[in-house]
Amino acid sequence: MSVRTQRAAKVLGTSAVAALILSACGGGGSGSAAGTGTGEIDRDAILRVTTAAPSRNLDPHQQASYSGVSYITPIFDRLTMVDSDDNLVPGLATEWEFAPDGSYLELRLRDDVTFNDGTPFDASAVAANIERGKTLPGSTVVESLEDITTVDVVDARTVRLNLVPGAGVGLPGAFSTNVGMMISPRAIAAGADIRNDPGEAGSGPYVVTAYVPQESMTLARADDDYWDDTAGRLAGIEITGIPDASTRLNGVRTGASDLTWVSSANEIVEAQGLARQGAVQIYEVEFRNVLGVMMRAQGDLVNPAVRQAVARAIDPVAISALFSNTCTPYQQMYPASSWSADGSYEYPYTFDEVAAKSLVGGANSPAIALTFGAGTNTEKPANVIQADLTKAGFTAELNPVPITQAEPRYIAGDFQAIVTNSFSPKIDPDETVDTFVTGEYGFGNNNPEIAALAEQAADPTLSQDDRAEFYKQIWALTLEEALFVPICHQTNVTVHSGKVVGADNLPWVNTGIFDIRTVAMLE
């Protein structure tokens, strides 16, 4: 009998979780979710998680939106990982090193990992995954892997990634995301339907027992001998997509769910109040993500003066007030704590109504359509920004769309502008440049000076300090193009019951997603 069959009967269906939460919201509920446990880890517990964004598929190589990665971290181990302080730490790779001339990246691998289908994890598995990521039709990781020319299996525990000259410096950071998630070579060879039924194709602490795209996923613990004893301590996990933040918060309050996140002003204030009453427990972090407006050089936005007018018309302080001042104004690309941030940088298009109107006046009432995810915490900012742009002389319209469509369709070029918090600076700025500046988001507007600097900064033989100087120039030139207007860092609040362990130490929560492989519950 397979692990999936053995565990399936123990895990409550996620549709039941959704029904419980909705019922609790309708009746108001009376129970407190913050019960006290015995202090012992309950390995028979089922963790019920709700999240704003649903999952579209479970294939690591076909994730079209950032939020989908949260669903698959318990299923597929990664070559590297990050901790809750955004430090890069070992995963399936115990160490990594670039060649002195930067011609290759060599990784040493763990020797105690087996995929849940029984296939050993080794250097050949890494090679198979990189080949799949580079060649799979519809792969969304092709660009992240393009610096790898060939892969050499040095021995079972050593893999050498040969690189494009002067490139590849961001790979260790990229491998901490879905780019570095490993799928069993047996499943790859069999052409398994990883998107909808990954089965035992991962080596992670949990396996999928039920999955309804865009709705829910149910997991069961895969193996009591998992290599990382800080993970896999639950009998199962249920993740349900519920867009409405108030519904998610009420689910934890009433005991219908155990763990969620909120970042809208009303729900943050309510969560803080519930925590003071002892009804829930909370943990607050400032987003690494930057809430802002992303634009395409389409229609009237081809004119740089019009884009600058958009930036000048937006008041970060007013936007912060929408979030009860839990969105800290910040108009840079990278957090101040990052080695690539420029502490002396001054944003060139600070809020100035007069300047905005002057710029618009020369463009004859330019048109802009602001897309946002309906029902998300970007809806109120989008409405305020529309009003500000209208006041400045724009013909500004709102375009609400389902959250699952907003980012993928913006990337595809369907939308002229989007109000979003999905700009998330990566662990290594090389990947940020590849994704947001010179890549699919196009913040750099094909500026040749930015491209040249990016090529220099990507040299793996350079020191971190030398690379930082290049990135400071890249960030300044990128923001000068005014295709991305940074506004503020929001606050993300983890809300959980008193039985949940480890909710205050989760990687990625400051990016709006989550890695819950190490979460446990008390008896």
List the helices and strands and how they pair.
Blueprint: H1 3-8, H2 14-27, E1 46-51, H3 69-72, E2 80-82, E3 88-90, E4 93-98, E5 104-109, H4 123-135, H5 142-145, E6 148-155, E7 158-163, H6 171-174, H7 185-190, E8 206-212, E9 216-221, E10 236-241, H8 245-254, E11 259-262, H9 265-277, E12 281-286, E13 290-295, H10 304-313, H11 316-322, E14 328-329, H12 353-361, E15 367-373, H13 379-392, E16 395-401, H14 403-411, E17 417-423, H15 429-437, H16 448-457, H17 464-481, E18 484-489, E19 491-496, E20 500-501, E21 520-521
Parallel strand pairs: 1-10, 15-16, 15-17
Antiparallel strand pairs: 2-3, 4-5, 5-7, 6-7, 8-9, 9-10, 11-19, 12-19, 13-17, 13-18, 14-18, 20-21
Helix pairs in contact: 2-8, 8-9, 10-12, 16-17
Task: Please provide a written account of the structure.
It is a single chain. By secondary structure, the protein is α+β, with helices and mostly antiparallel strands. It is 31% helix and 21% strand. It is built from 17 helices and 21 strands. It has helices at residues 3-8, 14-27, 69-72, 123-135, 142-145, 171-174, 185-190, 245-254, 265-277, 304-313, 316-322, 353-361, 379-392, 403-411, 429-437, 448-457, 464-481, and strands at 46-51, 80-82, 88-90, 93-98, 104-109, 148-155, 158-163, 206-212, 216-221, 236-241, 259-262, 281-286, 290-295, 328-329, 367-373, 395-401, 417-423, 484-489, 491-496, 500-501, 520-521. The chain has a six-stranded mixed β-sheet with strand order 14-18-13-17-15-16, with helices on both faces. It has a four-stranded mixed β-sheet with strand order 1-10-9-8. Strands 4-5-7-6 form a four-stranded antiparallel β-sheet, covered by helices on one side. Strand 4 and strand 5 form a beta hairpin. Helix 10 (304-313) packs antiparallel against helix 12 (353-361). The longest helix has 18 residues, at 464-481. The chain is globular, with a radius of gyration of 23 Å. It starts with a helix and ends with a strand. 54% of the residues are buried. Mean pLDDT is 91; it is low at 1-36.
